[in-house]
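Collaboration report, partner site 2.

Our partner group contributed sequences for two proteins of shared interest, and the home lab folded both. The records are reproduced in the order in which they were received, starting with the first partner submission.
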Amino acid sequence: MPTLIRCIRSDFQKFRHTSMLWIHILIPLAVSILFVSYYSVSPWNAETKISGYFEVIGIAFPLMIGLISGKCVEQERQSGNFQTMLCGVKSRSAAYTSKLIVLLLPGMIAIAIAIGVFASGFQTAPEILYFKAAGLLIAGSVFPYILHLFISFQFGRGASIGLGIVESLISALALTGLGDGRWYYIPCTWSARLCDCLVSIWINPSLAIGYAEIGKGMMVAIPATIAAFLISLFWFQRWEGSRSNE
């Protein structure tokens, strides 16, 4: 644990001196303000507006994860071709877990800002809906962070960004009938579809399908995320630090 804490502190120091922290603050702030401003004059009903906003965040998040993960790993490569991570820390598990935590925490902050600012300006829905939406967005993003961290280490920033673009497109398509019955097994769709189900429950609490869909999604997402973390941890302990290809 002390080793992990030291790694987290070190990684946060690196993170502070880049633009990544500001990206996690300014982009969600700008997007939420833009949507609140647009919705103030839009003729759509409240349910459509809230659902649309959650869907946009869920669709955009895989691309943002791809960009940030690739940038984070590229910074590590440029500082010594990963030798600091692989040789400068006693525990590789701590080094890898630290990197994942340092990616996840700003992501959580970005979601909190995006949902919090929107909720403040668009108070049609109950506060609990926004809290639940933020929780589902965070829960659905952990697996993509793990995946993109692996892709960034193994194949480089370009591969992570490319995958993020594809995932965002798939996430958008999965919100249509193409995703029905399949989205549980496609991690990049979890955030958007879970929030869609949440809004459906809010609109019609007696409709059991919304609860069932969230239950099915979480039954797949939770064990899949745990397994992905353990597998990636096992892989990193044996990784030789080969140069990422752009």
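Second partner submission, folded after the first:
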Amino acid sequence: MPQHVSAPSAPPAASSGSFAPTAADLLDFVRRTASDTELIDALPLDPEGRTWVRLDGPGGSEAWLIGWPPGTGTGWHDHAESQGAFTTARGALKENSLAVRLPSSGWKTLELADGVDRERRLPAGKGRAFGQHHVHEVLNESRDTHAVSVHAYFPPLPLIRRFSRSGAVLRLEQVERPEDWQ
């Protein structure tokens, strides 16, 4: 069962008393958190499936520490209106993404143009930030090594849209709400 733990402190709040973290703030947070070896070592790892622990993110953001057994991945998905960042803390991850902004609603199937596919390799210590409607899949392609990563999203995830992909065709398969994964 997921746990809730504290992570490294967030950047200071703005003088107005409110703080809305930017993608750069989220990336700084996940990088600092990924370097906390005591926290990373405390994550329980399951050889069969991903494990996760909810963290306290900066400025009310949603943050997660995630363990990835060899050969696991997320499948294609987006984070709706949330921006985010993630960093690999241990092992290595691969991110496949689409350099295209999808419509936020009103479609079930889209044909993708040529040249929209992107691939990033993220060994330990490497991460990235992304904006709203970022469509990607994250994979641990190792055959024998767990990976661990830190993720943060702001605003907290209102939903995740899951997609299937066959060649250039992207199909919306499922919409998950927070109660489905918390």
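Feedback sent to the partner group on the second submission included the following. The domain at 4-180 is CATH 2.60.120.10 (Jelly Rolls). The longest helix spans residues 23-34.
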